[in-house]
Amino acid sequence: MQLLNDIKQILNTAKQNAYKEINKAMVYAYWLIGERIVKEEQDGQIRATYGKAIIKNLSEQLTVEFGKGFSIDNLENMRRFYLTYSISETASRNSFYCSLYFSQIAFLGLVNKKYKFM
Question: Does 45 or 15 have the greater pLDDT score?
Answer without folding.
Answer: 15
